[in-house]
Structure prediction request, 168 residues.
Amino acid sequence: MTTAKPSTTLDASLPTSAASDAWHALPRPVLPRRPRYTGRMPAWAWLAVIGLCIAAVLPVMRTSSVTESGSELRALEAERERLNSEIRSLAAHVGQLGSLSRIQQQAVERFNMVPARPTIVLDVSQPPPARTMPTRFLPTSGSLDLDFNHSQTDTSVWQTMIDALVFN
Prediction:
């Protein structure tokens, strides 16, 4: 077995057997032990991955809720516009139903009414004749006495008053 000899000047001054013993006498450098890779991620790495996922998903969820609210708002605005146009249409229909020509048409069709004839106005320059009452309604000479102390009955007093007020 041959061993490699050091090439330093210090080792060259030593005899060969001593030089080889000195080489073996030096402590071997110890490297720090690295953990073996077992295929598992450490807990802090899992926490970091979960945190990054949550940080990435939160804006997406917020954006989707805002988008959903926006679409709901647009749907409600469209419904409001539809209802406003329906209100305008119904108001126009009510105006049409209230028109004079339609009312006249419905009066003729549904109620069999006829249009009014033109009104004739006569201008009379003489006063009307005096009204004459039938004799049966004219008071007799003693029946207008309304004194209640007389011996007349109550029905005759009322009858007298009714007869005096009836003109036809």
